[in-house]
Design brief:
single chain; 196 residues; two-stranded parallel sheet; 9 helices; 7 strands
């Protein structure tokens, strides 16, 4: 719904756990809006005047790392107001909702909390199941429904864990010269994961 859905605010915050897809969504928006992407460290070292003069939309990754530091919050506040005036847009990516961040600059807090925000929740079993099946298909590995269920019962509900697990299963299958994924192979890989 950008930009109409963001009105009257120039900012949107997407928040959720690491690996939940925030960066993927931001990349889509960045492409559509010709936005620039910077992370918290780059923001700390940037000149706000230069960002405003560039007159481009902006994605700020790790937004939560800037909150709680007065000088960074003041820069964000100035940027927010400048973007509103110039009809530019700011997409913030954060692990936490603006409602759960501890701001020092209350004017910034009120603006970001009033702006739109969207949560990406941890994946449920149905979504994890579908993603696991797709990842195994992408890797040309044959895994039965019993193998998917075996993994789901034992894995953490986290995208990064899922990616590492599928990669480790692929590597183990390659070493064993197998195209099919067996329960003993899964048991072995999951045992290594639990020892990490």
């Amino acid at each position: 719904s950008w930009p109409q859905g963001w009105a009257p605010f120039p900012a949107l915050t997407i928040y959720g756990p690491k690996g939940s897809g925030k960066s993927h969504l931001a990349a889509v928006w960045q492409s559509r809006s010709q936005a620039r992407l910077i992370n918290a460290e780059e923001f700390r070292n940037c000149d706000i005047s230069a960002l405003l003069e560039a007159r481009v939309n902006l994605v700020i990754d790790q937004l939560e790392q800037l909150i709680g530091h007065r000088d960074q919050e003041e820069k964000l506040f100035h940027l927010y107001n400048g973007f509103k005036q110039d009809r530019l847009y700011l997409l913030g990516l954060s692990d936490k909702s603006p409602e759960h961040l501890t701001f020092l600059v209350q004017d910034l807090a009120s603006r970001l909390r009033a702006s739109q925000s969207a949560e990406i929740k941890a994946p449920d079993d149905d979504l994890l199941r579908r993603v696991l099946v797709k990842r195994f298909i992408d890797q040309n590995l044959d895994i039965g429904e019993d193998g998917i269920t075996y993994i789901l019962i034992r894995m953490e509900r986290d995208w990064d864990v899922l990616d590492k697990l599928v990669n480790d299963i692929r590597l183990a299958a390659t070493v064993q010269k197998r195209a099919d994924v067996t329960i003993p192979l899964l048991r072995s890989v999951l045992a290594e994961h639990s020892g990490d």
